[in-house]
Amino acid sequence: MKSSGEDLPTIAALATASGAAALAVVRISGPDAIGVADRLTAGRASRAREREAVLCKARDAEGGVLDEVLMTVFQAPRSYTGENLVELSGHGGMLVSRNLLARVIACGAVSAGPGEFTQRAFLNGKLDLTQAEAVMDIISAQTELGLRAAREQLAGRIGVMVGAACEALLGVVAHVEAHIDFPEEDIDPRTGDEICEKIRQVSADIERLMATAERGRILREGVRTVICGAPNVGKSSMLNRLLGYERAIVSELPGTTRDTIEDVVQVAGIPLRLVDTAGVRHADDRIEREGVVRTLREIDAAELLLEVVDASRAPDEAAMVGRASGCRHILVLNKSDLGCHPGWEGMAGCRLSCRQDVGFPELEETIREALQFGAEDWGSHAVAVNVRHQECLRRAHEALAAAAGAMVEWRGAPEFAAVELREALDALGEITGRIDTEDVLGVIFSTFCIGK
What we know:
This protein is α/β, with parallel strands linked by helices. It has helices spanning 33-41, 44-47, 94-106, 116-123, 129-140, 144-154, 157-181, 192-210, 213-221, 235-243, 286-301, 360-371, 375-378, 387-407, 414-432, 437-448; strands spanning 11-14, 23-29, 54-59, 65-74, 85-91, 110-111, 223-229, 261-267, 270-276, 304-310, 328-334, 350-351. The chain has 16 helices and 12 strands.
């Protein structure tokens, strides 16, 4: 897919975060990027060697010096956007960078919209849509696993997998449509069983990609993890230990936590949105009673439940509050330094002591196993589709299922299968943004020699 080139304006924006810093980078991209930079630097941009940083002065309208910058020129199509692109690295700071950007705009550029540089990279064929989306995933990655998955996506891994499915499906679509449109060529179609087998193979590939959607959601959003239990079993102490700092007030007095407390932590490479809750017990105090109500509400909404009990007390005295909420559940036997009551023997749980800082590595591993999520679970490639990909894959999978059903009547009505196959192909093409009629025609003419 190509942009309209000269019809697009030259855009500019600050490519680094605003605020005090050593450097600030202003990026200019578009057909007049070099001209804009020339007007800013008294003609230095057009004389600069490509990809070679040049020290020069950025000047205001009266010729005064705004800043000393390192200017790098990238000529189309050898740039991030595929257009002429200039980067100006100046001194950091809100005022100096703002003045530099304002001068660039006065020299003929317009302010870039959100994501417009990456959008132009896509329009000029430098990135597919999955790679463009990966740029933001890299920026917002919260864990090493999230960063690894984003890098794989930016490298085109998802695009390659979707492209392979598209290529296999193109052959099927081309064959079916050739049989419909060119019967005089005496093309003998493959048997229905062979075509159904190809559809099944593509469907299996799609299912494997769809299975990574939950991983992708966790990487981007985290797992809502609720810490619950009776009062004074060490819930807040465990929260503080997982976070690495004193987030919640800890006291030996029951009922200290009255409201939910939320924070995000990385555990075993997994982002957890931890929610510490009030202890569950019968409460006469109106405020504490409201805290218990909120706790039960959080338990219902949890994706992972860490139920903390006092292991030194008998199970019936520990007031277990876990409920069949349908989420993953881990029993945490806290206060193991005080000894473990015989009633807990044989109980599946993770034993730890917040006081002695013991058992937390085991808890992290238990969490990883419960979520089936870790570096060893990824295999050789960290692939994780997002919600948009998942929806496109779902539509493609449903269309392929319908096409397979139509193939039962292959010799009677191939048109119905063709419609569903084309729908599946279009849905897959939406993921990367690269599929059109020309692809199908190319396969038809090259493979079946139509029009010889």
